[in-house]
Amino acid sequence: MPVRALIVDDDHKERIVLRYLLEQFKDVKIIGEAVHGLEALMFCQEKKVDIVFLDITMPEMDGVETAVKLMEMKDPPWIAFVTAQTGMAVNAYELGALDYIVKPIEQGRLKKTIDRVKERIAHQNVIDEIVQQRLKNRIDYIMSKYNEDEVLVKRLPIREKGKITLIKHEDIIVCESQGKKVFVFTKKGGYLTNYTLNQLEKRLDEAYFFRAHQAYLVNLNFIQEIKNFGEGSYILRLDICQRDITLSRSKLRLLREKMAI
Q1: 193 shares its domain with 241
Q2: In 10 A of CB 94, how many CB atoms?
């Protein structure tokens, strides 16, 4: 797919020159021209643009202001400033511009810009593919879990004297290993069970439960605080049951990834 380019310059002659130079590249498609910043913004809102070749000196809205507004878009194009000014390159790169081309434009210099934007597009495509694959894998996993009988029933059966109590998963605050048995703390009280933590980790929904320690399985919805305990250790403070759980640095990293914090 060719690189989709937009030319923005208030000078008609400069646009003609840049168009001619870009037309020499078979992998570039010029999809439009704009004479000022507002027109460029409207164009990029309506059509997909990979790169905007943007003059800095323009009336009303200059190139720098236009670039800032373009970069605020949901799917912003790459920006290559094309200008006769030589002293604003640092500012341009600080804004996040892909390139800064000084007029008069040389074909070889323009090729470097095209190659650069092609690399960025290819890199983004790879990232998009990875994200899509991970999303697919996650959906596949959820569907496979959904088809398991133990997940269809969102209750944990706990056998007590003469009865079986069915505990809703969302009511479980933390599961704590105590010797050969596991104590399950809930909103309504605690239960001593014959489960192992490994069994509960497989049985309870991994989207909400996290193995914070070899002795604890925690419901993420009940984590109230994460406190630095010093020397690479952290404390998880849980709501309702007021329990503190030691957390290693490696577990903290996994927890942050899981909770997106």
Answers
A1: yes
A2: 8
